[in-house]
Amino acid sequence: MLFNSYAFIFVYFPIVVIGFFLIGWRNTRAAAGFLALASLFFYGWWSVKALPLLVGSICINYWFGLRLTPQNERSDAGRKRMLVVALTVNLVVLGIFKYADFFVANINDGLVAAGIAPLPLLHVALPIGISFYTFTQIAFLVDCWQGKVRERSFVHYVLFVTYFPHLIAGPVLHHAQMMPQFANPATYRIDTNKFALGLAIFTFGLAKKLLIADKMGQYADMVFHGVQGGTVPGLGSSWFGVLAYTLQIYFDFSGYSDMAVGLSLCLGVHLPLNFNSPYKSTSIIDFWRRWHISLSTFLRDYLYIPLGGNRLGEARRYFNLFLTMLLGGLWHGAAWTFVIWGALHGAFLVVNHLWNAKVRKGRPPSRWSVPLRWLLTFLCVMVAWVVFRADSMTTAMHLYKGMLGLNGTELTAFTEFNIPYRKPEFFQTLLVGLFICLALPPTITLQRWVPQVQRLAQRPQLSRVATVLIALFCVVLLGLSISKLGTYSPFLYFQF
After folding, report:
1. How many alpha carbons fall within 13 Å on the CB side of residue 246?
2. Secondary structure class of 276 (helix, strand, coil)
3. How many CA atoms lie within 13 A of 293 on its CB side?
4. How far apart are CA 344 and CA 351, in angstroms?
């Protein structure tokens, strides 16, 4: 069941909202249980076969969590051993389901080169969302070990892990962000202001996905699939194809995150910010503070810092930074292209930190350099997206050659590819997407600027007019988005 489907918008979500608040009016614990069961149903709609793995993961990690707290009778050394066991179990399960065939295939390459018969592939189906709910629970286990976990309700823990707005594609959640909200009785009383604001944010996210991401995806897929099939891309086709994907992945994932935040806010629960206008960044360091914030925070807190962070000298700091990004790339998928994408960003970050330390030496950048720094950052991000999207390094290298003009310098983006829709529509969507990315604030700021507009000049009549105009705009945008429903259009991060 997709957020951008008739079944979700007109059947599932209305039933969940009505049931949650009706039950919550009488019994908050029962309402939390209802929402947890509804979330399990949402996941089971995708794959009933994967549901036992999710339920089993929840049960065993809750059991581990109880035994990792400092209040447990175990010694500190015993708790640390238990933590190692718990993390190993989670990583082994993730490795089997996500990376088994990848590693076997690479071993087979070596065996075949040595004249040895290859090993059979396991062909294990990848359960959707396994990376997100595994990372969420790893963070929970570490926090239990550090004594940060206070709330112990099993029902709330199940809801924390399975909560449907974030279950499939994040954000990666922390118990401290969610458990207090589930324990707060006010969460189970409908708040009309939150509900209206949540619908507005959901509408903006739905529009991002259906009106921009999917249209950009048509051209991006055409270019990448064409190159994969043997078409040699020229200068224009390469750059426009990569730019189309650059916008597609932003509006696809940002749109999902907005929808998750909006749906959750309708239920009275705040999800953390996951995007903060990343394409406005003027450095790669700044980019990773704005893009997929929950993953960046997780990698920093549970990988970079445990590796030693910047506490073990400058050389070790850069190694830790590079290794963190390398593993972050591998987290996105079982392919060398993702590893290389992580390595590119690791190298970019190392160069960025070296520049700040050795050249700038703490001096603030000049204003005139802002456009140049933004352009360099945006180009680095685009260059890395090539290998992230490509099915192989061969495809990526053909596109890199095209971007350098080595395949011909034609500037028309449509020479090699037949466009299934009118060219003006592509360029209009491209310009609108760039304007939204570079000129408008992130959708999440609706939580700030809507109330400000409503209090405009503290004049009640003007406030009512502003509220009506905002509502009408959201209704029109929602109607336009819903008119695009009907085709299967999954989110890109579902595969990660």
Report:
1. 24
2. coil
3. 14
4. 11
Residues with a known catalytic role: 332
Which residues of the chain fall below pLDDT 50? 416, 419-422, 448-457
Residues with Cβ < 8 Å from 215, sequence gap 6 or more?
Answer: 421, 425, 426, 429
How much is the pTM? Answer: 0.90
Backbone angles phi, psi at 336, to 5 degrees: -65, -25
DSSP string, 193-246: HHHHHHHHHHHHHHHIIIIIIHHHHHHHHHHHHHHHTT----HHHHHHHHHHHH
Coil vs helix vs strand at 491: coil
Give the CA count within 13 Å in the CB-facing half-sphere of 392: 8
Q: What is the DSSP letter of 359?
A: I
Q: Provide the Cα torsion 92, 93, 96, 98; round to 10°.
A: -110
Peptide bond into 185 cis (omega under 30): no
For the chain, the C-alpha Rg in angstroms (whole number) is 24
Measure the CA–CA gap between 365 and 281, rounded to whole angstroms.
14
In sequence order, what DSSP letters do the residues of 302-349 get, joined into one string?
IIITTTTTTSS-HHHHHHHHHHHHHHHHHHT-SSHHHHHHHHHHHHHH
**Sign of the dihedral through C-alpha 148, 256, 291, 84:** positive
Please report, to the nearest 10 degrees, the dihedral formed by the alpha carbons of residues 249, 197, 296, 137 taken in order.
-110
CA angle, 285 as apex, 284 and 287 as ends, to 5°?
Answer: 60
- Classified as helix, coil or strand, 40 is helix
CA distances in angstroms from 468 to 263, 275, 465, 472, 481, listed in the order given? 21, 28, 5, 6, 20
- CA separation for the pair 408, 237 (Å, rounded): 10
Whose tokens are 């960046």? That residue is 296
- Using CA atoms, how far apart are residues 339 and 445, in angstroms rounded to an integer? 33
Angle of helix 130-145 relative to helix 51-68, nearest 10 degrees? 10
Which residues, at least 6 apart from 168, have a Cβ–Cβ distance to it below 8 Å? 43, 46, 128, 129, 132, 491, 494
CA distances from 323 to 35, 106, 326 (A): 38, 20, 5
3-class secondary structure, 163:
coil
**Structural domain spans, the chain:** 6-190, 194-282+365-495
Cα(365)–Cα(357) distance, integer angstroms: 13
Quote the CA–CA distance of 312 and 240 in Å, as a whole number: 43
